[in-house]
Write a structure and sequence with these properties.
The structure holds two protein chains of two kinds.
Chain A (H helix, E strand, L loop, with lengths): L1 E10 L2 E11 L4 E5 L6 H7 L9 E10 L2 E2 L5 H7 L4 E4 L3 H4 L6 H8 L7 H10 L3 H4 L11 H13 L5 E5 L7 H18 L2 E6 L2 H7 L2 E6 L2 E7 H6 L4 H8 L49 E4 L2 E3 L9
Parallel strand pairs in A: 3-8, 3-9, 6-7, 7-8
Antiparallel strand pairs in A: 1-2, 1-4, 4-5, 9-10, 10-12, 11-12
Helix pairs in contact in A: 4-7, 7-8
Chain B lengths: L1 H28 L4 H6 L7 H10 L6 H13 L13 H36 L4 H15 L2 H15 L18 H39 L2 H8 L4 H23 L1 H14 L5 H10 L3 H29 L7
Helix pairs in contact in B: 1-13, 5-6, 5-8, 5-13, 6-8, 7-8, 7-11, 8-10, 9-10, 10-13, 11-12, 12-13
Classes of the chains: A alpha/beta, B mainly alpha.
Chain lengths: 312, 323
């Protein structure tokens, strides 16, 4: 349904998405994981050309949504996709809702022009469990808690019954108990509305609980891609391995907490060869020469590592 | 809300009290005396006569006694009489205040009508040639001394081209004109003064508007609005504009003292019989009661402007509640 090919995005002098391929099938939930600043949010925004033109833009690549070339669409046609067919839930609900308009009004806007009836709004509010709180009309975003604000964002996103929902760190700004409720709500809506989802998060645990397939991003490129079970049980890229190892375990409490050494590189100063090699424990001479290609490990499992086949 | 306004009004009293103490003192210790006008260049007036006049006005008493006298009269809303023509100060001011308020009102409307769109369009086209050209244009207005600009315009438009009148509010034949012609006549007289005061004020509003708008356009909720599939028009003129306009409300309320100060200058240049020129004339003749009267009115207007700014901010921004 969605297919991104060779996407490159530049912010000023830095190329922050350096050729990303990504596909989402109907009804599928794809998790896009990576550290903050690896370009995952940008990929999400680029999908409907939402990148702030003042900061940068898409330099090359193609994006197909149901066989339509999104990058070739004019503003009017693009609007028919944005928020109607592909909708978003962003990270910080408190700053993503307009403070001077009522929740009701912002929700009303999310519906297609011809379908802005009171009944439709009440139904959506009931879907996200806000009918009691926002039922009365004059409620402003600042009067709601973070969790409720995120419910409003989700309501806005699913109101027009989109095909694809792009969730950009939807639970990162929320505390853990609220996180769980929001994730359950998303899972419930996904079933009910048969949504396809691109789930962007730095939190592997959350992605594991939601996604069917997982794409791991590092320094503007996909470094590993595969079905959830493959990624969980046999990660082939040292970076993915590092991410999984750094999840604290409840079962094995004595285990030392393992973080990935070093820091993610700056886009203005990317290393030669494999972009991960300065932090990699499996580094060999070859890693410093040329950035490896994304290669098959199995039919559905790919990794961008010269030692992908030997490592486990 | 009403309780809040009431409390603010009460708290204005000590503030106003302080303002009058300072202005009263400053004006009385400034060089020159009201009696100078009548006596200084007149050799027939003896020293005794001068003292007699001073005594008549109560100027021989110590300053704090004079202030107490003035305050006692003020408490009864008695502003006293002018030293110059013995007419009640209240009457002199009330004759003149409508002109000043009228001109300022028209010029504020003009500033908003031109400055807000300049700010929005500059913000939307941030850092383009248009944006920079507008910045230069509004700063020319801001930097140009009002007096100089007024004189140049009077010379060009009034004298050389003879298109518009350059002084006063009415033509000599005003009384003989019909209603429509009267309105036209006054409007023609107001073109230059309003233009000068609006041009000077344009920079403030348009720059504030631009800055607000640039900041608002970077907010996450603008991205949300775009992601919802709203048109660029709805994003800018609905979602961004309402947020960017909020601080302008405050600035308008706070611009009162600047406007009164500006009136003093352009009313004097264009010989407009408003409160500004009255103030200028009374300062020149050290007409203490009139000076104090105008300053008190100005201070009250300023304080009311501040209050209005706070109240209207609460009215337009749902996040602000006045307690």
């Amino acid at each position: 349904m969605l297919e991104i090919k060779g996407l490159k995005v530049r912010y000023g002098a830095n190329e922050v998405v350096r050729g990303v391929d990504l596909a989402i099938k109907k009804g599928e939930c794809v998790g896009l994981v990576g550290e903050s600043g690896c370009g995952k949010t940008t990929v999400g925004l680029a999908t409907t050309k939402l990148i702030d033109a003042r900061k940068g833009g898409i330099t090359s690549g193609r994006i197909f949504f149901e066989d339509r070339d999104v990058l070739g669409l004019d503003a009017e046609d693009l609007r028919k996709i944005r928020g109607r067919r592909i909708s978003y839930v962003f990270q910080e609900p408190s700053s993503s809702l307009n403070p001077v308009f009522t929740v009701h009004e912002q929700l009303r806007e999310a519906l297609p022009e011809k379908d802005r009836a009171e009944k439709a709004i009440s139904r959506i509010l009931a879907d996200v469990g806000l009918e009691k709180i926002v039922g009365k009309k004059q409620v402003y975003p600042h009067e709601l808690s973070g969790g409720m604000q995120q419910r409003v964002m989700i309501a806005m996103a699913v109101a027009p019954e989109p095909d694809l929902l792009i969730l950009d760190e939807p639970t990162t700004a929320l505390d853990v108990s609220v996180q769980k409720q929001i994730l359950e709500l998303i899972a419930e809506l996904k079933e009910k509305m048969r949504l396809s989802i691109l789930f962007i998060s730095h939190d592997l645990r959350i992605v594991f609980s939601m996604a069917d397939r997982i794409e791991v991003m590092y320094a503007g490129r996909i470094v590993e891609s595969g079905l959830k079970k493959d990624i969980v049980s046999e990660p082939r890229h040292p970076y993915t391995k590092g991410l999984i190892n750094s999840i604290p375990s409840m079962k094995n409490r004595k285990k030392k907490f393992e973080a990935i050494e070093g820091k993610a590189p700056l886009f203005s100063d990317l290393p030669q060869g494999c972009k991960f090699h300065p932090r990699c424990g499996f580094r060999i001479e070859k890693c410093m020469e040329k950035e490896p290609a994304l290669e098959n490990v199995s039919d559905s499992h790919f990794a961008r590592c010269v030692r992908a086949k030997e490592l486990l | 809300m009403i309780k809040y306004i009431f409390r603010r009004l009460i708290s204005m009293v000590p503030l106003l009290f302080g303002i009058t103490i300072i202005t009263f003192t400053v004006i009385h210790i400034a060089p020159g005396k009201p009696t100078d006008m009548e006596t200084q260049f007149n050799p027939k007036v003896s020293l005794e006569a001068r003292d007699r006049i001073a005594k008549l006005y109560g100027l021989d008493k110590p300053l704090h006694v004079q202030y107490a006298d003035w305050l006692r009269r003020m408490a009864r809303f008695d502003f006293g009489v002018s030293f110059v023509d013995s007419r009640p100060v209240m009457k002199k001011i009330s004759e003149r205040i409508p002109v000043t308020l009228g001109i300022n009102f028209v010029s504020i409307i003009l500033i908003l009508l031109i400055g807000v769109p300049i700010g929005i369009s500059s913000a939307v086209r941030e850092n383009t040639f248009y944006d920079r050209a507008m910045t230069v244009f509004v700063f020319i207005g801001f930097a140009m001394p009002t007096i100089w600009l007024s004189l140049i315009l009077m010379d060009l438009v009034g004298v050389r081209w003879g298109i518009l009148p350059v002084s006063g509010l009415k033509s000599l034949e005003f009384e003989r004109l019909g209603l429509l012609e009267k309105i036209m006549d006054v409007s023609r007289h107001l073109v230059l003064p309003v233009f000068v005061s609006a041009f000077a004020g344009l920079a403030g509003i348009s720059r504030y508007m631009r800055t607000n708008m640039v900041q608002v356009l970077r907010q996450n909720y603008i991205r949300t609005a775009r992601a919802k599939g709203l048109s660029e028009r709805e994003v800018i003129y609905k979602h961004a504009l309402k947020n960017a306009l909020l601080p302008i409300v405050t600035i308008l309320g706070l611009s009162v003292p600047g406007l009164i100060g500006g009136s003093v200058i352009f009313e004097s240049i264009f010989s407009i019989p408003g409160m500004g020129r009255l103030f200028y004339e009374s300062v020149m003749s050290r007409d203490y009661p009139v000076i104090m009267g105008v300053l008190v009115i100005g201070a009250v207007l300023t304080l009311l402007g501040n209050l209005l700014a706070d109240v209207s901010y609460a009215a337009v921004d749902p996040r602000i509640k006045l307690e």
